[in-house]
């Protein structure tokens, strides 16, 4: 797999780690985790362009809309992958992202399956070449590193 630069913003730590491990299993090792909305926005503003942002479809509508507004203003991500199902009582964030011109790579059900994730990552890599990056790093929350 190409050296993709991935940011995961998932409010549930157990699912965050599962997504991180799933990316690693697909050969994607440059994975960053954002523990909350301010951390996600800071990562998107400070890093070079992320190839993929993985989001929880059921995140709060307020946080989701704020993040979409931020993405439209900073252009910090090439594609978004939504995991899980949208809540019936809230706005469909994937549809809203598409309406704003953001590329929604896929909407995968939870629990995530390796073949579906692999297909999405291959589609991301084939759509436009990823610039080779020097080395790689895996970053996790301090609480998970102990």
TrEMBL record:
Residue ranges of domain Response regulatory in the record: 5-125
UniProt xrefs under InterPro entries: CheY-like_superfamily, Sig_transdc_resp-reg_receiver
Residues modified to 4-aspartylphosphate: 56
Protein name: Histidine kinase
Top-rank taxon: Bacteria
Keywords tagged on the record: Kinase, Phosphoprotein, Transferase
Annotated GO biological process: phosphorelay signal transduction system
Gene Ontology MF term list: kinase activity
Record's keyword annotation contains Cell division: no
SUPFAM superfamilies: CheY-like
Organism: Pseudomonas urmiensis
Gene3D superfamilies according to UniProt: 3.40.50.2300
């Amino acid at each position: 797999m190409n050296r993709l630069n991935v940011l995961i913003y998932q409010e549930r730590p157990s699912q965050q780690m599962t997504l991180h491990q799933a990316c690693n299993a697909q050969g994607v090792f440059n994975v960053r985790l954002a523990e909350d909305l301010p951390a996600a926005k800071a990562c998107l503003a400070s890093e070079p362009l992320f190839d993929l942002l993985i989001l929880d479809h059921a995140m709060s509508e307020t946080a989701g809309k704020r993040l979409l507004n931020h993405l439209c203003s900073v252009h910090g991500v090439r594609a978004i992958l939504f995991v899980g199902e949208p809540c019936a009582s809230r706005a469909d964030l994937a549809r809203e992202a598409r309406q704003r011109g953001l590329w929604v790579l896929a909407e995968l059900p939870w629990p995530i399956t390796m073949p579906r994730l692999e297909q999405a990552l291959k589609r991301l890599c084939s759509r436009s070449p990823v610039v080779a990056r020097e080395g790689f790093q895996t970053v996790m929350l301090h609480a998970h590193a102990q």
